[in-house]
């Protein structure tokens, strides 16, 4: 039969080993939830961490970034363009650009929201410029038609 101190040492060793196993098991579970579990583990990540996953092509992380920032993006686009359809187009172009170029995000330059709204801002300016060019062409075409009509009379 084992003596008292030997039994206590065995019990302490056994407990320490089980604690290590439990800790490693818990760490493995957290890692699995965050990196493999999709939205369950990614919901609690910061935007900057989500962008790391977006860079790797994680659609669930991209969906969370979209859910967190789409409303602010639409508000900015709507204020800039003045129409719902144009604002929706701008937001769609901006998030498509974000998905394609997630690797360009640099956390040292600002937050994800600032970066997203910067993309929306630039896309809205592009849309306004396209609209102005289109309006000028239409006005020019109408002017030519008017001149042709008045010249024929």
Secondary-structure topology with pairs:
Blueprint: H1 4-36, H2 39-42, H3 47-55, H4 59-81, H5 84-100, H6 112-152
Helix pairs in contact: 3-4, 4-5, 4-6, 5-6
Quick tags:
single chain; 153 residues; mainly alpha; rod-shaped
Report what the structure shows:
This protein has 153 residues and is mostly helical. Helix 4 packs antiparallel against helix 5 (84-100), helix 4 packs across helix 6 (112-152) and helix 5 (84-100) packs across helix 6 (112-152). The chain starts with a helix and ends with a helix. It contains 6 helices and no strands. It has helices at 4-36, 39-42, 47-55, 59-81, 84-100, 112-152. The longest helix has 41 residues, at 112-152.
Mean pLDDT across all residues, rounded? 78
Q: Per DSSP, what share of the residues sits in E-state strands of 2 or more residues?
A: under 5%
Shape: rod-shaped
Please report the distance between the alpha carbons of the first and last residues: 123 Å
Tell me how many strands there are.
Answer: 0
Question: Share of helix among residues?
Answer: over 70%
**Helix/strand structural class:** mainly alpha
């Amino acid at each position: 039969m084992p003596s008292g101190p030997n039994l206590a040492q065995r019990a302490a060793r056994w407990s320490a080993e089980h604690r290590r196993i439990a800790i490693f098991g818990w760490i493995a579970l957290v890692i699995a939830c965050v990196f493999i579990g999709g939205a369950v583990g990614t919901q609690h990540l910061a935007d900057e961490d989500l962008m790391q996953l977006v860079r790797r092509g994680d659609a669930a992380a991209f969906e969370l970034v979209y859910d967190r920032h789409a409303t602010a993006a639409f508000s900015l686009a709507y204020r800039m363009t003045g129409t719902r359809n144009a604002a929706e187009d701008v937001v769609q172009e901006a998030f498509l650009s974000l998905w394609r170029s997630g690797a360009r995000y640099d956390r040292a330059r600002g937050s994800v929201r600032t970066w997203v709204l910067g993309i929306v801002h630039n896309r809205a300016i592009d849309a306004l410029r396209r609209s102005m060019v289109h309006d000028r062409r239409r006005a020019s075409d109408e002017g030519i038609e008017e001149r042709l009509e008045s010249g024929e009379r």
